[in-house]
Design brief:
Elements lengths: L9 H10 L3 E6 L2 E5 L5 E5 L8 H11 L8
Antiparallel strand pairs: 1-2, 2-3
Length: 72
Amino acid sequence: MSQRFPVCNAKEVVRVLRKQGFLLVGQSGSHQKWRHANGRQVIVAMHGSKPIPIGTLKSIIEGSGLAADDFR
């Protein structure tokens, strides 16, 4: 059985990252770099209200060390 990933936009991802203790450490154009105190880091592309592609969201989830359920 495959795991279904949630559909969310960049603002929703940022809200979850902030709630989990990530801090914005830099930005280049529309790409924001978020880092946690434990050293984990993720890049989030801010493209308005467009949904983040599933592969990109999967990469953000794996890079953050959070569960997919945190993003629901």
